[in-house]
Amino acid sequence: MTKKRSAEIGILGENLVAQWLQGQGWQIIAQRWRCQHGEIDLIAQQGDRLLTFVEVKTRNSRNWDADGLLAISASKQIRLWQAAQLFLATHPELDNFLYRFDVALVRYQGDCLILPADRLPIDEKIVLGQAIALTGYQLSLQAYMESAFDNIEA
Question: Which residue in 11, 68, 112, 115 has the fewest CB atoms around it within 10 Å?
Answer without folding.
Answer: 115
